[in-house]
Amino acid sequence: MPSCDDLCKIIEAKHHDPFSVLGRQSENNLTKIRLHLPYADSVRFADKGPEIPRLAETDFFEYTAQPGELPEHYRFSWIDKEGRHHIDYDPYDFPEQLPEFDRHLFGEGKHWHIYQKLGAHRYNVDGIDGVLFTVWAPNAERVSVVGDFNRWDGRCHLMRVLGNSGIWELFIPGLDAGCLYKFEILNRQSQEILIKTDPYAQQYEHRPKTASIVVKEDAYQWQDAKWMTYRKNRDWLHEPMSIYEVHLGSWQRDDAGNFLNYRELAKQLIQYVKDMGFTHIELLPITEHPFDASWGYQSTGYFAPTSRHGSPDDFRYFIDLFHQNNIGVILDWVPAHFPKDFFALARFDGSALYEHEDPRKGEHRDWGTLIFNFGRNEVKNFLLASAIFWLEEFHLDGLRVDAVASMLYLDYSRNENDWIPNMYGGNENLEAIAFLRELNTVTHEQHPGTVMMAEESTAWPQVTRPTWTGGLGFSMKWNMGWMHDILDYISRDPIHRRYHHDQLTFGLLYAFTENFVLPFSHDEVVHGKGSLLNRMPGDEWRKFANLRLLYTLMFTYPGKKLLFMGCEFGQGTEWNFNQALDWYVLQHPRHQGLHTLVKDLNHLYKNHPALHQYDFNHSGFDWIDCHDVEQSIISYRRKGTNDDLIIILNFTPIVRENYHIGVPFEGVYFEIFNSDSAYYEGSNVGNREILSEPEPWMGHQQSIHLTLPPLGGIILTRQTKTINSSAH
What we know:
By secondary structure, the protein is α+β, with helices and mostly antiparallel strands. Among the domains are: 4-89, Immunoglobulins (Immunoglobulin-like, Sandwich), CATH 2.60.40; 100-214, Immunoglobulins (Immunoglobulin-like, Sandwich), CATH 2.60.40; 618-718, Immunoglobulin-like (Sandwich). 21% of the residues lie in helices and 26% in strands. It has 15 helices and 35 strands. An 8-stranded parallel beta barrel has the order 15-16-19-23-24-25-26-27, surrounded by 5 helices. The chain has a 6-stranded antiparallel sheet with strand order 28-29-30-35-32-33. A 4-stranded antiparallel sheet has the order 7-8-11-10, with no helix packed on it. α8 runs parallel beside α10 and α14 packs parallel to α15. The chain is elongated. InterPro entries: A-amylase/branching_C, Branching_enzy, GH, GH13_cat_dom, GlgB, GlgB_N, GlgB_N_E_set_prok, Glyco_hydro_13_N. The active site is at residues 402, 455. Keywords: Carbohydrate metabolism, Glycogen biosynthesis, Glycogen metabolism, Glycosyltransferase, Transferase.
């Protein structure tokens, strides 16, 4: 017979091991069945079995059975106080389910697939179906599963703690996919009761509701085997990569202004992306998040695609269809910080579990968010498993890791006395560095062919170099320095650009120190910055000409490409996450011309190896002239194994007649692209055939004279014999 103290702890929902009190107990060679059912009026064994008597003035029901009287797993039938009838197996009649091996790996931070174990999963024990709930809450005195199946009452389904792992577990027979649940946690020290969503849940209610949802086993039939085989062996270093960055909630909406389903989005977006010539899309975080205005960067669901656009299988369909159309899908992923929402990870078990206790290490004051404790094995495992989850369960082609700089530096965006140095007295976050190296090692080993991109805004060395050479191991890094320099330069009136010519050329001093992506991302069209179009100087004609020139520079400059949605057609207003893009502007010729230009640049970039084959190597680039400061002109070569292009960019609105440059080879040069073409609503200044002359210039034995369009860029190729062509 349990002590009164044990019974009281069950009644008060404070018992850490309800299995020692409830379920099947052996006492004096007899079997005791003890149930705690707060809403029961009467209870008996199922199939017209004997009644299970109530212990006087309690919600306990107890039955003494003879040896061999009860089956291996008994069912009981009960009537609640509203007269409704229920038949259940006793959840306290089942042994521990989570193996010690899984607990050990998790404690070591080495269980890449822990999401298959922790959380809530449909489960079968001895032929009985139900749901196995597990959660890590080491500072809890008691944890209960609450949900729509038990009136959200923490007294009904108390969990048991598994040894010293900090993991709590309960198998509840009879439950199925679709049920709503949370965890009710009693903190050991403060006695505070917390109601938390499942950190490992794979689906959540549509915001503003926050309950976790039990999902069915993944039975989706993928159709992307051809893509996955190609991806595993592809040479992404030397292949074109032009990325269209998309916020699914505002790319397009239905006629009533509502979100589109992942399946609807796939069909519309794929056709558009293919036509425009992009090779990949990158999604702003679709990990579940409560606040639309965070754009997904303050996630509360690290294993769940947001329910705003449908179910997990709808998202699988989305990715599958992109792959069938030979388009890769990259996801923005945020391990740098998480929000303080009371229902999620913040002080999960009443303690600083996922974060640091000291706000000097555990809080981003600028963002009002918390910082993961990368030195804690279970937290590190949570994040590593999340990365593997998206790559494995959803076939994603890579992750772009947000805010890496904030992870690397302990004093990132902090006042002088608001940070704690590392063990050596420095500002490097040694635990985060180790985490990032392990993240990149594990993802590349587990899923070869996928890419990991860093949004890292400082000069931290070797971000994209292998971990065994001391690097962080990322595949690529956003070139934030280039982006800031170029946007600052192009936003100036052309008359002043000669004083800032170094902003055009400085990037080539470090262009090959990392594997760079050139990003014109969502960050450049928010927070009062305006649209890219309206950051261009001058009247309307000059704004469009400058933007066409900017894109010509980006697509011909070393590095992979990224362009945020709406920038490709010159959206005039700043991006608004809460409404669809201004597609109507494509009715206007200049917007349509810009749209066509981006499409043509994408196809040129993909079709000419010179523009992508050696993006990360000196051998793919040569300056022709970077010193023409007074005329604000630069010219350079892009080189592939069997491809050679010359690019000349004029950053003033003045037509440059008879402009003289040196060229490496004898032959006929002709334009294959001109940003000032009438096709793009330019002024149509350009060149036809240009025959080289044996006049040494700029270090070359041959040279050409040509006409440069105003605020325009041209791309030249060479043929050894004269052909008739019209470049514009």
